[in-house]
């Protein structure tokens, strides 16, 4: 979809337009940056569903995609966005080692 319309996703400005990050009535800066990292089609479907409030059928008609493709791509976009927004969890061996040693002593 080559035409981009302004919407609430960028505070009434097109994403990437000068001043889009300074508007206060749109989603937070960190959310916009995470959404921008999604694949183009996944981003488009997510924005149409969550910000434009279109139904799955309306999105399928608009983008000329099968309904199940819209559903699966929306699921994938939400999962990718969740992964981008969650802080990374780093396993630490320092914390795990004492617990394992304690279990060994109790047995």
Query: Architecture in CATH?
Result: Orthogonal Bundle
Strand proportion, as a percent range, falls in under 5%
How many β-strand stretches? 0
Which CATH class is shown?
Mainly Alpha
Which descriptor suits the 3D outline? elongated
Oligomer: single chain
Describe the structure.
The protein is mainly α and 107 residues long. It has one domain (8-88): Arc Repressor Mutant, subunit A. It has five helices and no strands. Helix 2 (40-50) packs across helix 4 (67-85) and helix 3 (56-63) crosses helix 4. It is elongated and about 55 Å long.
Q: What key attributes describe this structure?
A:
107 residues, mainly alpha, Arc Repressor Mutant, subunit A, 56% helix, elongated, disordered N terminus
